[in-house]
Amino acid sequence: MISAPALGLFAGFAMVASFTPGPAVMLAVNNAMHFGWRRALWSSLGNISGLLMLSLLSALGINAVLQSSATAFTLLKTAGALYLIWLGVQQWRRAGAMRRAAAAAGSADWNAQAAEPAQVRPRVLYRRGLGVAMTNPKAIAFIAALFPQFLRAGHPALQQYALLTGTFMAMSLLALSSYAALAVLARRPLRRWFDTGWPQRAGAGVFCAFGLAMLRLHRN
Q: Would residue 192 count as lying in a domain?
């Protein structure tokens, strides 16, 4: 099996990668601002489920397909970019609706007033987190490049892959939950500012920026 020092080093790499802001972090922050920490946890669970699937795909050699086929890489890249831009547009529209609802009610509690029921259902949030993870071609490449460096020859590869995948998922869940908690704590002292809708619009802009940046990705 993987030695303890090697596993610790891998956990360090996984933690740095997980805490580096990206689309998954932005989605966790966005959901925490709108629906609270517990609801945001569902999108985080969707994201780490996506990591599990990406790990399986990487083990099956999908990364080699993406590296060798420009068409496959472009299709996945475009799908991911459009999905992130769609999330940004939806968040921008929702921010405006929340502001109007809060003003009409004379209350700052837009979190409970303006969200449509379908948007706060756990399965919807879970699917969004899963979608963000599964439409990122670089995530497969990252897993495919990092995992083999820690596999020990002569030992069962399946068990080692499972250990690395579980560690990566745990680090990811820790990072996303931490960002979501910070977003909830920051929202309370800045409630009036959040009521204007501009923090949500800024987040929407970041989603769109991530999407546009993904369109510029190239195969290594």
A: yes
